[in-house]
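Researcher: We are triaging several targets before committing to wet-lab work. For this one, the compound of interest is magnesium ion. I'm pasting the protein sequence and the ligand SMILES. What I need is the predicted three-dimensional arrangement of the protein with the ligand bound, expressed as structure tokens, so it can go straight into our comparison scripts without reformatting.
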Amino acid sequence: MTRDGVIKCENITKVYAGGKTALSAVSFTIPAHGIFAIIGRNGAGKTTLARVLSTLLEPSSGQASIDGLDIMKDANRLRERIAVVPQEGRTVAWMTPVQTVSTYLMWRGIGYKESLRKAREAVEQVGMAGHADRLNRTLSGGMKRKVLVAMVLASDAEFIFLDEPSTGLDPISRQELWRLLIELGKDRFVLLTTHYLEEAERVADRIGILDDGKLVAIGSMEELRSRLRHGYSLKVPEGANLPVKEGETIALGNGQVQVLTTRDEALSLSKMLIEAKAQFSVNPVTLDDIFTYMVGAMDAEVAEAKEVEEE
Ligand SMILES: Nc1ncnc2c1ncn2[C@@H]1O[C@H](COP(=O)(O)OP(=O)(O)O)[C@@H](O)[C@H]1O
Ligand SMILES: [Mg+2]
């Protein structure tokens, strides 16, 4: 892949049979390397966009290309360079991690011996050397997910698509996965979708925010931050009467009020709140703040429910 290759999307629209518009004229151009995270609430269109770009689903209209190859016309050539872990990705219970990865590599056209060697190397790379030859069904949810990551890691695919790779993982496994994703993103393009804003903020070079099928923002964390007028966020319980002059006050609807403001005003308000022994928090704006500002609160309860379902 050329280092100046891009992923280009022009007015991609997807209307499912039944009439649901899952993507509505999505357009963007981003470099075809590094990590691109698509965030959005449940039903926002993340999976649909990932499937369209990875040639698994035809858009209703619009065009897209990866490194100059059209997702429709050049789908076959593109597929050789793409690896996908779908949202519902599962490992086969009666296979071992090494068998799982080597089978995938053979299916991609790599010879038997080479597949086994690469598979073992990748399984070790994801920190599973001690479990390389156990049956998948004896592995924890986090380890099964790592086997799927080992598959794409071992492949020579340049464009990797991971749909909600960390949903349902415990916090430790999630952080281990982040380390692997960052590793993957060093020499490949990784598109991942996620419910976890912290994850996107930690690992992604670029972030796209989808809401109801529309791309409402895209850019690096810095670029997204600059979409907000102020760099600091202060949260206080509702009813705390703050003399805000520079910033703007937003009711979060969860018993809290958020003030987006300058660093100086955040500091002076914090001093007042400390003197008044009031409860509050203050931080430079996070992706969470940006998301809430642009789209509204993330549906945390849906993410929680999904986690339970996964276990
Ligand atoms: N095969 C399908 N047929 C009809 N509607 C679908 C299908 N797949 C997804 N949808 C709908 O399209 C919208 C976007 O879905 P999806 O891309 O899965 O969102 P996300 O991954 O962000 O949760 C949702 O309203 C969903 O119900
Ligand atoms: Mg999805």
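Researcher: Any quick observations?
Model: The radius of gyration is 22 Å.
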